[in-house]
Structures are given as structure tokens and as C-alpha cells.
């Protein structure tokens, strides 16, 4: 037998290690790697040859099984029973078989969650967003389990695998100096971070951090590990805040390539800094900034797990307790406050999107709100806490967010399941309105009246303050306040709740169109208030005609157009359930002749067609024109609804700015030019009520009977 090449004397005398995959540097440079260890390209570049992490194989399509048929059968039986049709149950002979195949388990009498389970997977969901969509999840619980399967893969893998990040088999420190950009570009990335990211996060004292970066840039080979982790996380979030065109113009590189490079570098730098056991506040800040950069690319469940790590690290550092009470110097105490509240915001948002309840630790920390002061008022050598300022400061946005959380903690109660409630059940609605009015007055007195709308940070604070108050009014007035779950709720109250939800969506759209907000899109996009969006969809199942209904459907279309992930991520259980609810509402709208504008039939929106395609629902036949056409608008109605968008003069009145500054137009051309959409509201600590949402989704609330054209006092809101 002839010897193979691997058996020749030459080969045996000089063995070479051959890898199965190319290295990271060759992948980034898009050159062929010889897969040696080290490869020739890395040897020439005098760079460390780091092996790339292979992508997981694509999951094979499952064959249609008897269990799938059984799941569909149970779903159909559930729908039949829901509509009053009796279905004879045939209990299996083996009592244990039913529990193995069952897809969902109703909560016990005292519980507010929903357990989804089969023989191999389980998932527990427990908050407003998910309970509101209980019907859509129960209809096909298998999707909710498969959507979070460990076999799930993504077509685009810009970011490295986060599982390898937490459990790295090769966790030895690696040299990352060659991954730093040139000093000029380091400073450019830092300036980008200061403009787009720092005003919304305020983790550290910018002048001090700038000096740290300047010193490190002059000696990249000897940067302390915690500082290097912070620098790479700053690079990553700065690139995240830029558009594709800006990255090409500023760095002559594609945005995706920069994200891949700096994401890997940030992960490795955190591993180098031993972030899971580090006692450095800078390392925790680097980890939090890294998590901020992942919010649009990482699934909600993984986000929640990673933010949980941030919480545990923060608790280990003790920043959940105010530093002054432990004799920590004033400067360090203030930086600890800023960092802690960012951890609270991160975990609160992730918990809501992942479908989990808020943890009880949220009610136990005693860290004070960060001071409303600018960085120029702070110094590492100061001996006394600076006097807090009244008015606009560099800290204003983060302070407003913290005040919202503080308001819920002060006026609310923490339920046993960790859920925040605006007030106790015994307090009347006027009392809640008074508390909200006081918070609104405080916002205006101490912050908003000092805002200059020509400054982007000030303008985003105006949007956020208005949006937060709007959302709090919605939460304070919803039907859970009534023993009969809204049956005796006055029609005026129902109309107000509907109008507040619509206001919230219109505020989000106005914020998106403001050119001054473009640098903040990285943050505002993930803060879209799904509570209001889902409530509007739910109401549209009963409200089918009228001016506000048309405005609501326009906002639904805008939301789907600006947030394409709500359509494309069909493995996301939350988005899939929202789409099912949207289709139910659209069917009612079509049946009521909503597609007819006079005698003209309006085409089906793209997002509706996409949702139907995903669910393999055929397009229905062309609807019949309604027998009674809508009447010609009267002068009174024209005066009341002369502008179906937000009145910019009302925004100006609230913000004490020049009318017409932030013009708002809802034409299709402007929406198409706008790009991705976003919302500025923040209150991650959201009051919830599972029983109400379940009743709402089951269709047990009384049907809407009021006038679809709701007159709302312009001085009280944005619906005009």
C-alpha cells in the first residue's frame, strides 16, 4: 500500500497543527487563511493568531409528527371550548402521558403567570406584555417553546456567541493591543461616544475618563485590564450609535466589520479583566456598556440572563447601598449611584421583554438618585457633595429616568411577585391623578421649563417627560381599578384610556421624525412602549370606525415600518403573538369596511400581507363595500380633526418653546425617509396586572359602545 502524504518522512519530521476554521484576523481582513497555528498572515503581521468560533450548524427542518397533530388538535379544542362548543374529552389510559404532552398549564388561583411546557422544554412568562397576549400564545404554545430552542440559529452572526463569552474554554488573557484603532480614531470614537451615548448613560465622569483614554492611547501595550475593557466597550457602543454611511465616512470601514471586531475585542477584554469576579467598578461599567450595545442584536431571553449577571456583580460591589452611608468619598459615591441606576434600567427593560416578573431586590436597595449636576460640578478630589442644581444639566436625562423609578417606589407597592403597582388598591383614581399631576408639575418646574429645543439632549428630555406622564395616566386608569374588571367603567374613562394609548404611539413617531434625535436612535429604538402598542391593537378589535381608529391604524403601520424586527424575527414569541393580535384586529376592521375610503378600495398594507404569509393565511376575498358610506365631514368635525397628527404647538406649549420648531407630518414619503423608528419613554419599572390582561385577551370585557370620535381637551393632551 502506498503511503499517504501524511505518512511520508517529510511530514512526520515536521508536523503542523491544522485548524478546521480560519482565524479572527483573516476573517476580518477577508483573506484566505492557511489554518496553521499560527497562520502565515498573523506571523507576517506579528499579531496573535486567535481561532474563530465556528457557527452552529443550521437546524434541520423537523418532520411532521403525531405529536404535532396532537398539539394542533388540543389548540382547536381550546378554541371550540372558548366559543361555547362542548368537546368530549377522552382521558388517556396512562395518566402520566397527558402531563408529558401538555403544552400549557393555567396558573393557580393566586398566581399571575403562565407555564408553557412539554416533555423537553419549559418556559414561564409573567408580565403585562405577555399576559396581554395570553390568547395568542395558548393558541400555539409549541411556537413559544421552539422560539427559544437551543437549536435556533441566525443568518447574520455579527456578534460572537455569548455562551462562549460566559463559559470560555480558553480563558487565558490575550494581547489585544493590535485591535485598538489608531490614536486619532480612538479620539474620534470617544467624541462620538460623548455626543451620542454619554448624555443618555452617564456612567462616569467624562473629564476624568477622557484623561484616562489619552494616557492609555500613548501606551497601548500597557493598559490596565479594566481600563482596556472600558475602552473597547466605548468603541463598540460608539459604532453602534452610528449609521452605515457615518462609519464609512469616519473610519473607511463597514459598520458590520467594526461591530464584529469591537464586539470580539470587548468580550475578550472582559475575560482578561476577569469580569465575573472583578471588584472594579470600571469593569462593571464596561460590561454594562457592552450590554447596551447588544440590545438590538441579542434575543430577549439572553439579554435577561446577561443583565442578571450585571445585577449580581453590582450587588457584590455593594453599589445597591448608598456610598455616603458607608463613608465613601462624595465623588466615588456619586459615580456608584450613576452606575447602579443604569443597572436597574438595564435589568428592568430586559425583564419586561423576556416575560419575567421584576425581582424583589428592586424594592430593597437604598441607593439615592444621582444628583442633577454636570460633570463640571464634580471633581475626584472634592470633599463635600455638590449642591444639586435646578434646571438643565448634563445629567438631566438620566435624572428624569431615575425620578420615574423613584416615583413608583415612593407612591407604589411591591407585590409578592416583584411587580410594581402605581398605588395601593384602596386609593381612588383621583388620588392617582393627583400624584401624576404633581410629578408632571415637578418635571416642568425643575427641568422642562429650562430646556432649549435646539439642544438634542434637552429635546429628548421633553419627549421623555411627556411620554412618561402619558403612560402613567394610562396605567392609572385601566379597568383593573373596578371590581367587575371594567364592566361599570364609565364610557368617558374608557375613551380616555384609549386616547392615552394612542397619544403614546404618536409621541414615539414625533420623536423619530425629529432630526435632532438621530444620534440617539441606538437607544430610543429599543425603548418603544409595547404596552401602549398592544393595548391599541387590543382595542382595535372592538373599535372599527372613526377618525381615531384611522389614526391608530396609521400608527400601527408606522411601528411595523420603523421596527422591521417585529416582522422579520418570527421566532420571537412576543412579536409573533403581537402579530396574531394585529391580524385579529385587522380582520374586524376589514369586516367593517375599513379598507373603503368612500368608494375607493385601499390596498392591503405590506405588514398585514407579511403577517399572513408567515402564518400561511390566504388573502381573503375583496370585501364588499359598506351599504352606508361615511357621511361628509361637518365643519365641526373638521375643526376638531383638522390635523390627524400631533399638534406641534401643543408640544411647544408644554416645553415653552417656539411653535413650529418640531413640525410633525405623517405623509407616506416622510415615513419612508425616516428609517428605523423609536420611542423615548423609559419607565422600565412598569405597573402590571395579569388578571386584567388575561380577561382582556379572553374577550370578556364589555364591548366598546361609545362615539369613535373622542373629543379631548387639547390642553390635556396631544389628541386634537
UniProtKB/TrEMBL annotation:
It holds the Pfam family Fungal_trans. Keywords: Metal-binding, Nucleus. Residues 22-49 form the Zn(2)-C6 fungal-type domain. It is found in: Nucleus. Residues 627-637 have a biased composition (Low complexity). Residues 616-645 are annotated as: Disordered. One of its GO terms (biological process) is DNA-templated transcription. Coiled coil: none annotated. GO terms for cellular component: nucleus. SUPFAM superfamilies: Zn2/Cys6 DNA-binding domain (SSF57701). One of its GO terms (molecular function) is zinc ion binding. CDD domains: fungal_TF_MHR, GAL4. InterPro entries: Sec_Metabolite_Reg, XnlR_reg_dom, Zn2-C6_fun-type_DNA-bd_sf, Zn2Cys6_DnaBD. Its main location: nucleus. The keyword ATP-binding does not apply. PANTHER family: UNCHARACTERIZED TRANSCRIPTIONAL REGULATORY PROTEIN, ZN(II)2CYS6 TRANSCRIPTION FACTOR (EUROFUNG). This is Zn(2)-C6 fungal-type domain-containing protein.
Amino acid at each position: 500500500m502506498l503511503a499517504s502524504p501524511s505518512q511520508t518522512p517529510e511530514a512526520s519530521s515536521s508536523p503542523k497543527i491544522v485548524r478546521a476554521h480560519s482565524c479572527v484576523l483573516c476573517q476580518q481582513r477577508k483573506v484566505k487563511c492557511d489554518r496553521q497555528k499560527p497562520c502565515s498572515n498573523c506571523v507576517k503581521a506579528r499579531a496573535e493568531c486567535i481561532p474563530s468560533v465556528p457557527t452552529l450548524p443550521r437546524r434541520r427542518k423537523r418532520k411532521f409528527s403525531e405529536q404535532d397533530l396532537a398539539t394542533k388538535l388540543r389548540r382547536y379544542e381550546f378554541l371550540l371550548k372558548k366559543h361555547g362548543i362542548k368537546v368530549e374529552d377522552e382521558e388517556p389510559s396512562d395518566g402520566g402521558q397527558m402531563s408529558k404532552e401538555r403544552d400549557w398549564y393555567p396558573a393557580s388561583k393566586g398566581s399571575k403567570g403562565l407555564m408553557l411546557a412539554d416533555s423537553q422544554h419549559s418556559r414561564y412568562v409573567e408580565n403585562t406584555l405577555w399576559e396581554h397576549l395570553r390568547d395568542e400564545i395558548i393558541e400555539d404554545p409549541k411556537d413559544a417553546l421552539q422560539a427559544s430552542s437551543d437549536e435556533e440559529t441566525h443568518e447574520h452572526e455579527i456578534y460572537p456567541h455569548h455562551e462562549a463569552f460566559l463559559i470560555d474554554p480558553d480563558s487565558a488573557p490575550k494581547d489585544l493591543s493590535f485591535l485598538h484603532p489608531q490614536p486619532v480614531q480612538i479620539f474620534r470614537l470617544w467624541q462620538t461616544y460623548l455626543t451620542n451615548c454619554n448624555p443618555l448613560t452617564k456612567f462616569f465622569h467624562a473629564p476624568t475618563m477622557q484623561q484616562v483614554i489619552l494616557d492609555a492611547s500613548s501606551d497601548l501595550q500597557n493598559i490596565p485590564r479594566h481600563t482596556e475593557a472600558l475602552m473597547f466597550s466605548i468603541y463598540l457602543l460608539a459604532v453602534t450609535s452610528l449609521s452605515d454611511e457615518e462609519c464609512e465616512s469616519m473610519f473607511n470601514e463597514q459598520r458590520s466589520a467594526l461591530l464584529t471586531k469591537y464586539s470580539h475585542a470587548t468580550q475578550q477584554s472582559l475575560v482578561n479583566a476577569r469580569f465575573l469576579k472583578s471588584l472594579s467598578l470600571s469593569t462593571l461599567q464596561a460590561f454594562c456598556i457592552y450590554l447596551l450595545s447588544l440590545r438590538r442584536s441579542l434575543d430577549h431571553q439572553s439579554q435577561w440572563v446577561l443583565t442578571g449577571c450585571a445585577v449580581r456583580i453590582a450587588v457584590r460591589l455593594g453599589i445597591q447601598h448608598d456610598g455616603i452611608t458607608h463613608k465613601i468619598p462624595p465623588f466615588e459615591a456619586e459615580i456608584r449611584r450613576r452606575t447602579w441606576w443604569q443597572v436597574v434600567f438595564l435589568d428592568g427593560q430586559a425583564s419586561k421583554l423576556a416575560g419575567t416578573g421584576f425581582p424583589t431586590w428592586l424594592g430593597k436597595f437604598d441607593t439615592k438618585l444621582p444628583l442633577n449636576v454636570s460633570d463640571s460640578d464634580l471633581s475626584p478630589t472634592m470633599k463635600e457633595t455638590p449642591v444639586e442644581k435646578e434646571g438643565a444639566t448634563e445629567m438631566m436625562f438620566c435624572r428624569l429616568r431615575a425620578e420615574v423609578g423613584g416615583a413608583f417606589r415612593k407612591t407604589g407597592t411591591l407585590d409578592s411577585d416583584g411587580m410594581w403597582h402605581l398605588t395601593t388598591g384602596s386609593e381612588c383614581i383621583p388620588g392617582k391623578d393627583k400624584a401624576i399631576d404633581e410629578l408632571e408639575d415637578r418635571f416642568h418646574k425643575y427641568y422642562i421649563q429650562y430646556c432649549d429645543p435646539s439642544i438634542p439632549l434637552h429635546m429628548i428630555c421633553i419627549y421623555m417627560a411627556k411620554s412618561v406622564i402619558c403612560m402613567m395616566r394610562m396605567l392609572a386608569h385601566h379597568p383593573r381599578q373596578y371590581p367587575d374588571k371594567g364592566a361599570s367603567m364609565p364610557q368617558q374613562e374608557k375613551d380616555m384610556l384609549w386616547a392615552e394609548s394612542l397619544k403614546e404611539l404618536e409621541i414615539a413617531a414625533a420623536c423619530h421624525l425629529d432630526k435632532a434625535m438621530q444620534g440617539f436612535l441606538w437607544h430610543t429604538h429599543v425603548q418603544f412602549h409595547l404596552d401602549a402598542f398592544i393595548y391599541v391593537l387590543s382595542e382595535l378589535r372592538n373599535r372599527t370606525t372613526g377618525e381615531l381608529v384611522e389614526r391608530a391604524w396609521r400608527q400601527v403601520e408606522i411601528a411595523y415600518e420603523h421596527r422591521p424586527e417585529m416582522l422579520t424575527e418570527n421566532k420571537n414569541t412576543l412579536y409573533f403573538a403581537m402579530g396574531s393580535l394585529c391580524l385579529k384586529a385587522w380582520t374586524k376592521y376589514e369586516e367593517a369596511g375599513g379598507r373603503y375610503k368612500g368608494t375607493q378600495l385601499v390596498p392591503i398594507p405590506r405588514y398585514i400581507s407579511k403577517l399572513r404569509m408567515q402564518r400561511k393565511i390566504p388573502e381573503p376575498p375583496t370585501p364588499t363595500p359598506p351599504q352606508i358610506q361615511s357621511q361628509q365631514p361637518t365643519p365641526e368635525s373638521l375643526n376638531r380633526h383638522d390635523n390627524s397628527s400631533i399638534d406641534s404647538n401643543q408640544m411647544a406649549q408644554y416645553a415653552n418653546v417656539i411653535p413650529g420648531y418640531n413640525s410633525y407630518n405623517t405623509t407616506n414619503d416622510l415615513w419612508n425617509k425616516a428609517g428605523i423608528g423609536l420611542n423615548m419613554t423609559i419607565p422600565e419599572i412598569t405597573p402590571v396586572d395579569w388578571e386584567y390582561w388575561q380577561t382582556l385577551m379572553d374577550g370578556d370585557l364589555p364591548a366598546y359602545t361609545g362615539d369613535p370620535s373622542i373629543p379631548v381637551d387639547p390642553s390635556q393632551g396631544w389628541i386634537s
